[in-house]
Amino acid sequence: MSLMTLKDLYIEQLRDLYHAETQLLDTLPRMAGAASNSRLKDAIMTHLDETRDHAQRLERIFGSLSVNPRGEVCHAMLGLMKEADALLEQPGDPDVKDAAVIACLQRIEHYEIAGYGTVKTFAKHLEYDDHVKELDHVLQQEGDADKKLTRVAEGGWMVTGINQEATR
């Protein structure tokens, strides 16, 4: 694919995100299995459901463009997954490993937030108002997932967070 127009770049970036989301569908269950904290497991499984929804929303966008969603490899997500797998394979204290899972997941969330923010901006410029709504919904969920991971890591009112447990 050549990048001659903003629409070309938009489609390329959407494909990159689609590949990233489909990779996450395989990886999130492994990360949930590696987590020992029930709140962390729940947060990951909730995000797995959201990730399925994100892929479906992207498929709807591709359908409206009459474009195949496949064709790009998200090398950044492959790298993030490789890092996560390497951490998950290491032996260690369960609380420290939970903190490692959160660190990996937050890197992933930040990558997705950047990607969805970018394509949402492109959609606005291309006047794809329906796409903007879909992408904004996903962007909100990605931000919420990041905040939820922070709450799990730090704990809440009268709750010890994973980061505090890992320091013991």
| Helix content estimate | over 70%
> What is the straight-line distance between the termini?
52 Å
- Give the class-level CATH name: Mainly Alpha
Under CATH, the homologous superfamily reads Ferritin, core subunit, four-helix bundle
**Element order, helices and strands?**
HHHHHH
On the 0 to 100 scale, the average pLDDT is: 91
CATH T-level topology = Ferritin
How many strand units?
0
Q: What's the number of helices?
A: 6
> Strand pairing plus helix content: what structural class?
mainly alpha
- Approximate strand percentage: under 5%
Total domain modules: 1
Radius of gyration: 17 Å
CATH architecture classification? Up-down Bundle
Shape: elongated
Please give the largest β-sheet.
none
Low-confidence stretches: none
What would the keywords be for this entry?
6 helices; 168 residues; Ferritin; 0% strand; single chain; elongated
TL;DR of this structure?
The chain is mainly alpha-helical. It has a single domain (6-166), classed as Up-down Bundle (Ferritin).
